[in-house]
Amino acid sequence: MLPERGPDGRTAATRRARRLVGTRTAWTAVGDGEFFCPHCGGDRNYQRLTGRRRFTVLGVPVLPRGVCAPTVECAACRGHFGTDVLDHPTTTRFSAMLRDAVHTVALAVLAAGGTCSRAALETAAAGVRAAGFEDCTEEQLAALVEALEEDTGRFTGEPCVAGLSIELHEALDPLAPHLAAPGRESILLQGARIALADGPYTPAERDALATVGAALTIRTDDVGRLLAAARTPS
User: Fold this and answer.
1) 120 touches 195 (CB < 8 A)
2) Is 132 strand, coil or helix?
3) Which residue among 3, 14, 179, 206 has its CA within the 20 to 30 Å range from the CA of 197?
4) Per the database record, which ranges form the Co-chaperone DjlA N-terminal domain (predicted)?
5) Measuring CA to CA, how many Å separate 10 from each of 15, 22, 34, 220?
6) Cβ–Cβ under 8 Å, residues 107 and 144
7) For residue 234, what is the DSSP state?
8) How, if at all, do strands 60-74 and 21-37 pair?
Protein backbone atom coordinates (compact mmCIF):
# COMPACT_ATOMS: atom_id res chain seq x y z
CA MET A 1 0.00 0.00 0.00
CA LEU A 2 1.40 3.37 -0.97
CA PRO A 3 1.94 5.91 1.81
CA GLU A 4 -0.68 8.65 2.00
CA ARG A 5 0.44 12.00 0.60
CA GLY A 6 -0.68 15.45 1.69
CA PRO A 7 -1.76 18.42 -0.46
CA ASP A 8 1.90 19.29 -1.02
CA GLY A 9 2.61 15.83 -2.47
CA ARG A 10 4.83 14.79 0.44
CA THR A 11 4.30 11.87 2.76
CA ALA A 12 3.93 12.37 6.51
CA ALA A 13 7.38 10.84 7.04
CA THR A 14 8.93 13.30 4.59
CA ARG A 15 7.26 16.23 6.33
CA ARG A 16 8.50 15.05 9.73
CA ALA A 17 12.03 14.68 8.35
CA ARG A 18 11.93 18.20 6.94
CA ARG A 19 10.93 19.51 10.34
CA LEU A 20 13.90 17.73 11.87
CA VAL A 21 16.53 18.72 9.31
CA GLY A 22 16.66 21.40 6.66
CA THR A 23 18.43 24.48 5.35
CA ARG A 24 18.00 28.03 6.55
CA THR A 25 19.28 31.22 4.96
CA ALA A 26 20.40 34.11 7.15
CA TRP A 27 20.15 37.42 5.27
CA THR A 28 22.24 40.50 6.02
CA ALA A 29 21.44 43.97 4.64
CA VAL A 30 24.47 45.57 2.98
CA GLY A 31 22.85 48.54 1.22
CA ASP A 32 19.62 50.23 0.31
CA GLY A 33 18.12 52.70 -2.11
CA GLU A 34 15.27 53.17 -4.56
CA PHE A 35 14.57 50.97 -7.57
CA PHE A 36 11.87 50.08 -10.05
CA CYS A 37 10.19 46.98 -8.64
CA PRO A 38 9.06 44.69 -11.49
CA HIS A 39 6.46 43.07 -9.22
CA CYS A 40 4.94 46.29 -7.87
CA GLY A 41 5.32 48.06 -11.22
CA GLY A 42 6.67 51.28 -9.73
CA ASP A 43 9.45 52.93 -7.77
CA ARG A 44 10.03 51.37 -4.35
CA ASN A 45 12.67 51.29 -1.63
CA TYR A 46 14.89 48.23 -1.50
CA GLN A 47 17.51 46.50 0.60
CA ARG A 48 20.48 44.75 -0.95
CA LEU A 49 21.03 41.47 0.90
CA THR A 50 23.73 38.86 1.18
CA GLY A 51 22.88 35.45 2.56
CA ARG A 52 24.55 32.44 4.14
CA ARG A 53 22.93 29.03 4.09
CA ARG A 54 23.20 26.71 7.07
CA PHE A 55 22.18 23.12 7.59
CA THR A 56 19.71 22.93 10.51
CA VAL A 57 18.68 20.21 12.92
CA LEU A 58 15.48 20.82 14.86
CA GLY A 59 15.62 24.38 13.58
CA VAL A 60 19.09 25.00 15.01
CA PRO A 61 21.84 26.01 12.50
CA VAL A 62 24.74 23.56 12.82
CA LEU A 63 26.77 23.50 9.58
CA PRO A 64 27.48 26.18 6.93
CA ARG A 65 26.22 25.35 3.44
CA GLY A 66 27.76 28.26 1.50
CA VAL A 67 26.67 31.72 0.46
CA CYS A 68 23.69 32.87 -1.61
CA ALA A 69 23.89 35.18 -4.58
CA PRO A 70 23.35 38.85 -3.64
CA THR A 71 19.66 39.65 -3.64
CA VAL A 72 17.50 42.78 -3.85
CA GLU A 73 14.45 42.80 -1.57
CA CYS A 74 11.56 45.18 -2.22
CA ALA A 75 10.49 46.98 0.95
CA ALA A 76 6.85 46.97 -0.22
CA CYS A 77 6.10 43.50 -1.62
CA ARG A 78 9.11 41.69 -0.03
CA GLY A 79 9.89 40.14 -3.38
CA HIS A 80 13.46 39.00 -4.02
CA PHE A 81 15.20 39.80 -7.30
CA GLY A 82 18.64 39.47 -8.85
CA THR A 83 20.88 42.51 -8.59
CA ASP A 84 20.51 43.13 -12.34
CA VAL A 85 17.10 44.65 -11.51
CA LEU A 86 19.02 47.72 -10.33
CA ASP A 87 20.18 48.34 -13.91
CA HIS A 88 16.66 49.48 -14.79
CA PRO A 89 16.22 53.19 -14.02
CA THR A 90 13.51 54.32 -11.66
CA THR A 91 10.50 56.04 -13.16
CA THR A 92 11.82 59.40 -11.94
CA ARG A 93 15.28 58.76 -13.38
CA PHE A 94 13.87 57.50 -16.68
CA SER A 95 11.75 60.64 -17.08
CA ALA A 96 14.81 62.82 -16.48
CA MET A 97 16.88 60.81 -18.99
CA LEU A 98 14.17 61.13 -21.63
CA ARG A 99 13.78 64.87 -21.03
CA ASP A 100 17.54 65.45 -21.29
CA ALA A 101 17.75 63.34 -24.44
CA VAL A 102 15.07 65.35 -26.25
CA HIS A 103 16.72 68.60 -25.15
CA THR A 104 20.16 67.49 -26.37
CA VAL A 105 18.81 66.32 -29.74
CA ALA A 106 16.99 69.63 -30.22
CA LEU A 107 20.18 71.61 -29.55
CA ALA A 108 22.21 69.38 -31.88
CA VAL A 109 19.78 69.81 -34.78
CA LEU A 110 19.44 73.55 -34.22
CA ALA A 111 23.20 73.91 -34.09
CA ALA A 112 23.41 72.01 -37.36
CA GLY A 113 21.50 74.70 -39.18
CA GLY A 114 18.12 75.67 -37.83
CA THR A 115 18.67 78.15 -35.02
CA CYS A 116 18.23 81.19 -37.29
CA SER A 117 14.75 80.02 -38.26
CA ARG A 118 11.85 80.98 -36.02
CA ALA A 119 9.91 77.95 -37.25
CA ALA A 120 12.72 75.57 -36.24
CA LEU A 121 13.04 77.23 -32.83
CA GLU A 122 9.29 77.00 -32.23
CA THR A 123 9.23 73.32 -33.20
CA ALA A 124 12.21 72.56 -30.98
CA ALA A 125 10.83 74.46 -28.00
CA ALA A 126 7.45 72.70 -28.29
CA GLY A 127 9.14 69.29 -28.26
CA VAL A 128 11.38 70.15 -25.33
CA ARG A 129 8.41 71.47 -23.32
CA ALA A 130 6.43 68.30 -24.06
CA ALA A 131 9.38 66.22 -22.78
CA GLY A 132 9.34 67.95 -19.39
CA PHE A 133 11.15 71.29 -19.63
CA GLU A 134 7.88 73.19 -19.32
CA ASP A 135 9.48 76.65 -19.15
CA CYS A 136 11.66 76.25 -22.25
CA THR A 137 11.45 79.14 -24.71
CA GLU A 138 12.74 79.75 -28.21
CA GLU A 139 15.03 82.47 -26.85
CA GLN A 140 16.59 80.10 -24.34
CA LEU A 141 17.33 77.52 -27.02
CA ALA A 142 18.84 80.15 -29.32
CA ALA A 143 21.07 81.36 -26.49
CA LEU A 144 22.18 77.80 -25.67
CA VAL A 145 23.05 77.09 -29.30
CA GLU A 146 25.05 80.32 -29.48
CA ALA A 147 26.92 79.36 -26.31
CA LEU A 148 27.52 75.89 -27.72
CA GLU A 149 29.03 77.32 -30.89
CA GLU A 150 31.34 79.57 -28.89
CA ASP A 151 32.40 76.67 -26.68
CA THR A 152 33.16 74.28 -29.56
CA GLY A 153 34.48 76.88 -31.98
CA ARG A 154 32.13 75.69 -34.71
CA PHE A 155 29.59 77.56 -36.80
CA THR A 156 25.94 76.84 -37.49
CA GLY A 157 25.59 74.54 -40.48
CA GLU A 158 28.84 72.63 -39.98
CA PRO A 159 28.83 68.83 -39.61
CA CYS A 160 28.34 67.27 -36.15
CA VAL A 161 31.78 67.72 -34.59
CA ALA A 162 33.33 65.39 -32.01
CA GLY A 163 32.25 67.38 -28.94
CA LEU A 164 28.60 67.50 -29.98
CA SER A 165 28.67 63.86 -31.01
CA ILE A 166 29.98 62.94 -27.56
CA GLU A 167 27.18 64.91 -25.90
CA LEU A 168 24.59 63.09 -27.99
CA HIS A 169 26.02 59.71 -27.09
CA GLU A 170 26.23 60.64 -23.39
CA ALA A 171 22.54 61.58 -23.40
CA LEU A 172 21.24 58.77 -25.61
CA ASP A 173 23.44 55.72 -24.97
CA PRO A 174 22.14 55.08 -21.40
CA LEU A 175 18.54 55.63 -22.50
CA ALA A 176 18.43 53.47 -25.63
CA PRO A 177 18.38 50.03 -23.90
CA HIS A 178 15.29 51.03 -21.92
CA LEU A 179 13.27 52.28 -24.90
CA ALA A 180 11.26 50.12 -27.29
CA ALA A 181 11.82 50.73 -31.00
CA PRO A 182 8.87 53.16 -31.34
CA GLY A 183 10.25 55.26 -28.47
CA ARG A 184 13.70 55.49 -30.02
CA GLU A 185 12.23 56.32 -33.40
CA SER A 186 10.06 59.03 -31.83
CA ILE A 187 13.15 60.87 -30.55
CA LEU A 188 14.78 60.73 -33.99
CA LEU A 189 11.59 61.92 -35.67
CA GLN A 190 11.34 64.84 -33.26
CA GLY A 191 14.80 65.92 -34.40
CA ALA A 192 13.75 65.46 -38.03
CA ARG A 193 10.73 67.72 -37.56
CA ILE A 194 12.98 70.44 -36.18
CA ALA A 195 15.29 70.14 -39.16
CA LEU A 196 12.40 70.23 -41.65
CA ALA A 197 10.62 73.17 -40.03
CA ASP A 198 12.54 75.64 -42.21
CA GLY A 199 13.00 73.54 -45.34
CA PRO A 200 14.73 70.38 -46.61
CA TYR A 201 17.52 68.73 -44.62
CA THR A 202 20.93 70.31 -44.97
CA PRO A 203 23.97 68.01 -45.05
CA ALA A 204 24.87 69.13 -41.52
CA GLU A 205 21.37 68.33 -40.25
CA ARG A 206 21.50 64.89 -41.86
CA ASP A 207 24.85 64.32 -40.20
CA ALA A 208 23.48 65.29 -36.79
CA LEU A 209 20.41 63.09 -37.24
CA ALA A 210 22.57 60.16 -38.34
CA THR A 211 24.54 60.56 -35.10
CA VAL A 212 21.26 60.59 -33.15
CA GLY A 213 20.16 57.40 -34.89
CA ALA A 214 23.45 55.65 -34.18
CA ALA A 215 23.33 56.61 -30.48
CA LEU A 216 19.78 55.25 -30.29
CA THR A 217 20.93 51.97 -31.91
CA ILE A 218 18.68 52.50 -34.92
CA ARG A 219 20.03 50.79 -38.03
CA THR A 220 21.36 53.03 -40.77
CA ASP A 221 18.74 51.81 -43.26
CA ASP A 222 15.97 52.54 -40.76
CA VAL A 223 17.37 56.02 -40.09
CA GLY A 224 17.15 56.78 -43.81
CA ARG A 225 13.60 55.40 -43.98
CA LEU A 226 12.45 57.48 -40.99
CA LEU A 227 14.04 60.67 -42.29
CA ALA A 228 12.36 60.14 -45.64
CA ALA A 229 9.00 59.44 -43.97
CA ALA A 230 9.28 62.64 -41.92
CA ARG A 231 9.43 64.64 -45.17
CA THR A 232 6.06 63.28 -46.26
CA PRO A 233 3.11 65.28 -44.95
CA SER A 234 0.78 63.14 -42.85
Assistant:
1) yes
2) coil
3) 179
4) 101-225
5) 7, 15, 40, 59
6) yes
7) -
8) unpaired
